[in-house]
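User: I'm putting together notes for a lab meeting next week and I want to include a structural view of one of the chains we've been expressing. I don't have a solved structure, so I'd like a prediction I can at least talk through. The sequence is below, exactly as it appears in our construct file.
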Amino acid sequence: MTPLGRYYHVSPRFWRISRDWSEDARTLALYLSTCSHRNMVALYYCPVAYMTADLGWDLPRLTSALDELVAVREYVRYDAAAEVVFVPQAFEDDPPGAGKQTVGAVSVIRELPDTSLLEAFLDIAQTICPELAKALGRVIEAASKPHRSRIEAASEGHESGIEAAPIPEPDSRTRTRTRFPEEPEEPSPPLGLTEQEREILRVLRGIDGYPFSYEVDVGCVRKWLVRFPHVDLAHEADKCLDWWAGKPQGNWRSRLRNWLEKAEKEAQKQGARAGPTARGPTAEEQTREAEAFLSHLREAGGEIAT
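Assistant: Thanks for the context. Below is the predicted structure for the 306-residue chain, given as structure tokens.
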């Protein structure tokens, strides 16, 4: 990973492996190994709708190629219920490193919906990335343990004949903090959102510590639209998040703002707008786009901070 952009290694062996594949299967395999939806562990959320839109294929063509990769070539594994894909060879060719990259990989995996592919991923990680496998094992073990209050622990000690430590009386001079089990994951965005809006939500919800959880600052959204008219916000935020996984430090809001400023300057130099038109949006278009986006978020059940 580099601040200049995200890239993944593809082994030259791919061309030998795919020699007898159909052209569509080979194209889809390369897409799933290198697409913008992929993360650092090649286990990621990727609905069929993303694939058809990115490749410009109809559903029967995509289904045929995907079936070949899954059932015939066994190159890709796909959990249709969770819409999660796993490319084992891509993970083996470009595994995350130790230390902070392992921490980032665990964070990325925890953001995924529940998937049956996690077990297969762990089996391969045991050999390819033992440190990552151990870290994931600890996370899974901690999540499986039920929460126990101190009163329950004291009761168990009494029943077993072991004297439990006394529970201190509350002190009015101090503030006590009660630990609760982790909150359940937020529901996925409803189908009413456009693909672009779903992508923006997916990226922002993947940022640990960033104040986006269906609560959107209207002023911030409009400021971005005005300040960075040449930038694909979802794509650049995704790149910044990928870089952040290896260097989690500082304030997220300022980091992302600085990243977008650099992307805007670079886009202006290249003279290319990341979108369907070559001109910046008017003030009216910016307001209309922001209001439409926020309206969809309200329909999603989120509270909008104004």
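A couple of points you could mention at the meeting. The longest strand covers residues 43-45. Confidence is low (pLDDT under 50) at residues 1-5, 172-193, 209-218, 273-278.

User: Perfect, that's what I needed.
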